[in-house]
């Protein structure tokens, strides 16, 4: 018997709001190309629909709505497509980044319920929201350097706008943070207890609102203090991650008399040495960029991640080790942070397209 068709993006208009639920819980709502396309279609339709004053976005877990937001992009697809030269790989990144830009520039308030896992591509579809709601279950991260990638989906833009050098730390380490730290570091707007989400979601579909701003104000009025749970060693993060190079950052961390610093250095030693250097350069360049320019830079970078070094893609190797063979033993090239030379990093930042022919040339 054929497997029942699962609709991976559920959407409906109730009262004056559009409601979207990511519905791929067995994969932690990892974004497929089909999901990216459906999200784009729905959001574009609602942007011109006078009935819709605002949009609410959530994920679904195995037990039902909420519990998981989105763990990122479908890395198994990326590995398969990248290994086989499938042109859908290029479509995925072009369309995903276009979706990220759409959400950041959406004409109506978008409210993202960032409950549970919010990583990678999940950050890309939530960081542009007008209200980013977190709960005590939120675990937020950009863990791409662990799979030989860099924090894409606009990561250069939103991480570089965190206070101090938190953006560099999150980009290089891939460490996760909770609700309080997310709010403190401009990656979330307010806290709501996880068990209050369903009632608020339902209320949004039952109330009458004067306009989109009233919807946003209604949700913001439900926020409460996140309480304890802040863990970031901001002074250490700023001191170490302001150093000029990855090598100097790791050397200083390893020389420090601090359990946190040594643990951080050990984490960095597990990441792709090459992509650590690329990610640091990305964040620092993006700090002075508009979102559209950052996304164009990231589209260049991700193209090079798969095509710059044929047969030696750090990204394919990282995904292989994590999700395909699952041996947790990536063979990075170069294997050590100290062996990465500037001439290895610079080509990642050279666009393979003339400006007029760039896949994201239309983004403004």
TrEMBL record:
<dbReference type="InterPro" id="IPR029045">
    <property type="entry name" value="ClpP/crotonase-like_dom_sf"/>
</dbReference>
<protein>
    <submittedName>
        <fullName>Enoyl-CoA hydratase/isomerase family protein</fullName>
    </submittedName>
</protein>
<dbReference type="InterPro" id="IPR045004">
    <property type="entry name" value="ECH_dom"/>
</dbReference>
<dbReference type="Pfam" id="PF16113">
    <property type="entry name" value="ECH_2"/>
</dbReference>
<keyword id="KW-0378">Hydrolase</keyword>
<feature type="domain" description="Enoyl-CoA hydratase/isomerase">
    <location>
        <begin position="18"/>
        <end position="349"/>
    </location>
</feature>
<dbReference type="InterPro" id="IPR032259">
    <property type="entry name" value="HIBYL-CoA-H"/>
</dbReference>
